[in-house]
Design brief:
alpha/beta; single chain; Rossmann fold
Amino acid sequence: MLLLLRHGDAADGSPDAERPLTAKGRDQARAAGVALRTLGVAVNACLSSPKVRALDTARIVCEELRVEARAEQRLAGGNFDAEALAADLGETVLLVGHDPDFTNALRHLTGARAKMKKGGLAAVDEGRLVALLRPAELAAIATRR
């Protein structure tokens, strides 16, 4: 299973690669991690864009999931092959990055035309979109624990 998580809300500024998460973005990341744990999702590996907002999102989520987040340059911007990135990393792999890249990856993997929201999560299993959760839905799941 591939999990695609768009980074949380980030501050404006320059340079782009150094934009940090806002308090809202940190809350979104924490909620995503707690929601995944609450749902019993066991992540085997996590790859993230090296940009600060994405890597911090990944680290916060992965703290909840007890897995290490690893920076992956191919997620820094532009199209990428999600399946190739996840190959040989385990049954469930979390990718953390940016839009429009993740919206494009979701379309490529499933044919779905869905826009990834900041802090939103898509789950893809064997080419099927099995979940598309907005940040508010992840937060609702996280508070039910």
